Amino acid sequence: MASESDRPFTVIEPDRPAGPIVFSSPHSGRAYSPAFQEMSRLDLATLRRSEDSFVDELFADAPGHGAPLLAATFPRSFVDVNRAADEWDPVLIHGHGRLPRGRVNDRVTAGLGVIPRIVATGVPIYDAPLSVAEVEARLARCYTPYHDALAALMDRAYRRWGRALLVDCHSMPQPSAELLSARLPRPPEIVLGNRYGTSCSPELMAFLERQFRSFGYMVVRNEPYAGGYCTQAYGRPESGIEAVQIEVSRPLYMDETRLEKTAGFDTVRDHLSQIVRRLILHWSNAAGTAFAAE
Fold first, then answer.
1. Is 76 part of any domain?
2. Residue 187 falls inside a structural domain
3. CA–CA separation, 188 vs 249, rounded Å?
4. pLDDT for position 187
5. pTM to 2 decimals?
6. At 130, which helix (H) or strand (E)?
7. What residue spans carry the region label Disordered (predicted)?
8. Considering the domain boundaries, does residue 23 fall inside one?
């Protein structure tokens, strides 16, 4: 696999921009350098458990419908850009406790800060703490360029269209039984997150829910994923800038054990392509938050 020292992201631009929407896939990067693999105590297959595997490919038709697609190339287990830059883990980072910076929250305590201490399965990534210099180098090489690119795309959309929408694209494992609501007939397949109503309008959430339900998906809102740092930081509906997180259940399109696409991949990608096209058309043409009737 390529080195994470290569360009930390890709941007696929539309030939003909069709509206003020930006798609972002912050967790689908799969460029694991030999240096990172040597630093880790885990094999590559275990490191990859934290990936939102193939999500960039699931949403790859967005540029063809008129919206840019930004995707990280570095892995989430190396740097997590869906965290605040100061979510430093004092258990992992040597000397961090002496620095006048950092926020400690449930994510950081669990080992899922901006530099993760564990992979998604809960297994520690390292045998020894990381230095502050190592963390700062990763943020400078990956985190800052990614958010600079995302902010620039959002600003360009806003300046051109007078508003902007970030669609933050993710995947999720099948939720465990304790996370499922008793009222659901089957596990959620799509989770839409808007930080409990603070990052985008109810109209947008209702529109997206209708689109996914039209293909038969079980859709829930904000449970168990309400949106991470990107949704929270970029969603400012009162200023005409909205953000929504979309989580797609991995069993729909991949084998989570082998980390391979299944026969369902093409179907899910086709459905997402149609939903993306409808979203761009309706959201771009809507006046204010009033969505066009279907």
1. yes
2. yes
3. 8
4. 85
5. 0.92
6. strand 130-131
7. 1-20
8. yes
